[in-house]
């Protein structure tokens, strides 16, 4: 706990973002005029804060996405997507960022270059939750009508369509919840990737992402507004509208049939006077942090269930909270040298044609931490990229790392396109084989018919020869 910091924000821009020392309660940083709806705040690689902001006072519900380095209060980058973005989520390595819109559309960007890789219509109602699976293979989306969809990440990275529009086939489509989705937690599970979902219908459900099976169903008497599980995936924490936090055992072993667990089997934490809006754990799992519309965040000892500290967000209720390493806030040259700042660019409004087909990787401007302005944009061929990697293999410069990222992206696209080409060849070969088999069967049938006719004629001839004249 002594090495971690708590980051919270409210929905109103005037509320701003506040960062506290989790152990002492001291304010470490305040970012003014910034607010996000629930699930609209995250931290890329524990280095860069990202927040989506709806501007309801402007026409057409305009919005923006802000990026901050954790040791500066000025935004390092501001992007203005084609439409307002509510919930956001990122892969663990910070390479991809997804965002959901009130229109039901979803977007996925490549953070380093800012490229919009895909826009698709995910739901008929506004999106309110997004997450990646534990292994980053799937994207899960949830909407206000209670529907949930699972998308294969590889299908979202398909960039042949320059318009990036239209529909994308979902792997799973669930409608068991009958009210707005309020939370997702990705679980590793002993049986494969799983998902924990919560809803205002008062239920928390555990799903197998691959098979689509419902594994567990936790039923409560009041709306569930936030969920979390401990790092050991043994306990489920469900925050309710009445300010209570219910604690249930979470057995993620192999289950043949779904299990329904009632509220009577739960423990309860009392500490808030308003609806719970967010829950999170410290990295070690010893402490739970809860936030509420009562403008406070509470720190709980998981072993004793005691309330250790209360944080007060003076300018409004809290909609989001995350826990980050306190070292991320340090701005010393030594720390900067050990931990390179992630690169990110302005997010595109629309999809652009990829340079991957020409054998060129474009490395777009990364943010220069020291000078506070974008560095130059340049392009390198594949052969030159490989040569520079070999020449700088024993160094650890930002340029070398950026070149490696570029080559990795190009290789990933090449593998994806080659896989599609091979699949196309296989389908063609299968079609040819089927045609050949069909032709062979027809030929065999024709030959059998001819033989039968020949035998019949021979039999008739023999009968005519044997019959007396």
UniProtKB/TrEMBL annotation:
InterPro entries for this protein: WD40/YVTN_repeat-like_dom_sf (IPR015943), WD40_repeat_CS (IPR019775), WD40_repeat_dom_sf (IPR036322), WD40_rpt (IPR001680), WDR18/Ipi3/RID3 (IPR045227)
One GO term of the biological process aspect: rRNA processing
PROSITE patterns: WD_REPEATS_1, WD_REPEATS_2, WD_REPEATS_REGION
WD repeat ranges, renumbered to this chain: 120-151, 269-310
GO cellular component: nuclear pre-replicative complex; rixosome complex
Keywords noted in UniProt: Repeat, WD repeat
PANTHER family: PROTEIN ROOT INITIATION DEFECTIVE 3-LIKE, WD-REPEAT PROTEIN 18
Protein name stated in the entry: Uncharacterized protein
Species of the source: Asparagus officinalis
Organism taxonomic ancestry: Eukaryota, Viridiplantae, Streptophyta, Embryophyta, Tracheophyta
């Amino acid at each position: 706990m002594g090495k971690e910091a708590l980051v919270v924000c409210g929905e109103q821009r005037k509320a701003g973002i506040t960062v506290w020392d989790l152990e002492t309660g001291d304010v470490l940083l305040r970012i003014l005029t910034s607010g996000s709806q629930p699930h609209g705040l995250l931290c890329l690689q524990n280095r860069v804060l990202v927040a989506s902001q709806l501007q309801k006072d402007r026409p057409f519900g305009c919005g923006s996405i802000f990026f901050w380095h954790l040791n500066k209060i000025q935004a390092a980058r501001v992007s203005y997507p084609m439409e307002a973005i509510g919930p956001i989520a990122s892969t663990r390595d910070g390479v991809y960022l997804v965002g959901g819109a009130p229109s039901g559309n979803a977007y996925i960007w490549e953070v380093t270059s800012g490229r919009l890789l895909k826009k698709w219509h995910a739901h008929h109602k506004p999106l309110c939750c997004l997450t990646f699976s534990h292994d980053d293979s799937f994207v899960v989306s949830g909407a206000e009508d209670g529907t949930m969809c699972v998308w294969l990440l590889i299908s979202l990275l398909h960039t042949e369509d320059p318009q990036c529009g239209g529909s994308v086939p979902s792997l799973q489509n669930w409608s068991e919840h009958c009210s707005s989705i309020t939370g997702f937690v990705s679980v590793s599970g002993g049986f494969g990737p799983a998902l924990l979902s919560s809803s205002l219908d008062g239920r928390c459900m555990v799903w197998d992402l691959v098979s689509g099976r419902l594994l567990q169903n936790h039923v409560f008497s009041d709306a569930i507004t936030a969920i979390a599980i401990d790092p050991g995936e043994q306990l489920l924490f469900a925050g309710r509208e009445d300010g209570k936090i219910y604690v249930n055992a979470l057995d993620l072993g192999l289950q043949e049939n779904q299990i329904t667990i009632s509220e009577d089997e739960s423990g309860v934490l009392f500490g808030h006077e308003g609806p719970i809006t967010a829950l999170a754990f410290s990295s070690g799992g010893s402490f739970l942090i809860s936030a509420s519309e009562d403008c406070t965040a509470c720190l709980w000892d998981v072993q004793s269930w005691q309330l250790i500290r209360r944080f007060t967000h003076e300018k409004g209720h809290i909609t989001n909270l995350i826990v980050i390493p306190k070292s991320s806030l340090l701005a010393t040259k030594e720390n900067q040298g050990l931990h390179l700042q992630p690169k990110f660019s302005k997010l595109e409004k629309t999809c652009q044609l990829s340079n991957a087909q020409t054998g060129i990787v474009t490395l777009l401007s990364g943010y220069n931490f020291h000078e506070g302005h974008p560095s130059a944009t340049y392009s390198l061929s594949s052969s030159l990229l490989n040569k520079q990697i070999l020449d700088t293999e024993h160094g650890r410069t930002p340029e070398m790392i950026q070149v490696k990222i570029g080559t990795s992206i190009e290789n990933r696209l090449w593998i994806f396109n080659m896989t599609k080409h091979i699949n196309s060849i296989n389908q063609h070969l299968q079609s040819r084989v089927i045609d050949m088999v069909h032709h062979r069967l027809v030929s065999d049938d024709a030959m059998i018919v001819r033989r039968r006719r020949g035998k019949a004629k021979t039999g008739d001839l023999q009968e005519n020869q044997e019959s007396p004249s």
